[in-house]
Amino acid sequence: xxxxxxxxxxxxxxxxxxxxxxxxxxxxxxxxxxxxxxxxxxxxxxxxxxxxxxxxxxxxxxxxxxxxxxxxxxxxxxxxxxxxxxxxxxxxxxxxxxxxxxxxxxxxxxxxxxxxxxxxxxxxxxxxxxxxxxxxxxxxxxxxxxxxxxxxxxxxxxxxxxxxxxxxxxxxxxxxxxxxxxxxxxxxxxxxxxxxxxxxxxxxxxxxxxxxxxxxxxxxxxxxxxxxxxxxxxxxxxxxxxxxxxxxxxxxxxxxxxxxxxxxxxxxxxxxxxxxxxxxxxxxxxxxxxxxxxxxxxxxxxxxxxxxxxxxxxxxxxxxxxxxxxxxxxxxxxxxxxxxxxxxxxxxxxxxxxxxxxxxxxxxxxxxxxxxxxxxxxxxxxxxxxxxxxxxxxxxxxxxxxxxxxxxxxxxxxxxxxxxxxxxxxxxxxxxxxxxxxxxxxxxxxxxxxxxxxxxxxxxxxxxxxxxxxxxxxxxxxxxxxxxxxxxxxxxxxxxxxxx
Length: 500
Known about the structure:
Elements: H1 2-23, H2 30-40, H3 44-50, H4 55-65, H5 74-98, H6 103-114, H7 117-124, H8 129-149, H9 155-173, H10 175-178, H11 182-190, H12 197-227, H13 243-252, H14 254-259, H15 272-292, H16 296-313, H17 315-319, H18 331-351, H19 356-399, E1 406-411, H20 436-450, E2 461-466, E3 477-480, H21 484-487, H22 492-499
Parallel strand pairs: 1-2, 1-3
Helix pairs in contact: 1-5, 1-6, 1-19, 2-20, 3-4, 4-9, 5-6, 5-7, 5-8, 6-18, 6-19, 7-19, 8-9, 8-12, 9-12, 11-16, 11-18, 15-18, 16-18, 19-20
């Protein structure tokens, strides 16, 4: 019964935390264009994602979007992402329980992963739901490889091969998601029973080797696809030509962002509390080495996890020529530091004889704080600001009186016109309508909802965008998205009234 309660709690947690974001009406950047392309250009999404080595992503995304007709229906994909996030938490909890973690610590790890910033983005961005699917596939792959290593006879290699196959699929869905297998790997290694160094080495080599062999196989397959001209190769598929610069970038961006766990970075003015959280988490991790790694073998394992695995967990982004700092690429690295922090807290509690009730209270307090932050960040930094943009565009589209040559001008917002005080990368607090193509896709989506069967015969419109006021030419509708800055400063009720 206790196990079933843990499963239910993890699934419910994801829905409770993200439900306001799920049900808010909005789209986010590519959501609008993908809604159109899936109908006007069948197969295009798969070609587009395949150019970045993610054909499975495009296939499942196209299949899911084919059932979505309006912006409001994107909530279905966000709900799917929230459910899948809960499943990720359940699978991680299950694996940690099998690996020797206590019920409380394993459940806490599963819950903490659900509220990480990377998951917030995956749920908040409708077309990102396949990332969560790839996380699940990666976790199942690890569990199969682990089972194969403990199974005698022919079934063992079969399980390992099946795990490699799942890694292969996860990598062709979203490469960094496949690396999420590093999280249960690290957590299992930290509490693995004492054994010989040779046995440890074999266990590590099989797990890491299987993961990278599968990813490399996917890389080779996609290279054949590119070479044969099936799809063009995206620039991000090239290998990083400046490794030392990339390592500096890694130390300045992904590393602290991941160590901070639930605290968010800010593009303009990172708050001091962010660095305080980084320092506290780092201290807990180090204390885990001092108090938790008691034997030479345990210390060697901890050093391997803390010093070498971060590069493994972020290896895809380190190898790629792009410098992506979005939180959706940090899930393996954030999960790794979460495992180290939980191991550290567990060691501290044991060292100082913290009562079980007090230990549970600290864990619960941290999880509640993480859940509150996740709910707030996903809603106020993704859903609500994007909803503001959509409603302004939708209102203008409904106001347009169509003629044979109606003219519409959209004044696009720049970063200072955003409706949030915080901004990071292309995720939190970012704008959709600041790009010409995105503003046009939003307006097209609004017009499709107004005229689901197409524009009335004999009518059409010309849409132009710019960052400044329109030229001195007659326009039927002028949409000024610079008002977003004012909407962000109003109370929700006042905002809704103003939009009406």
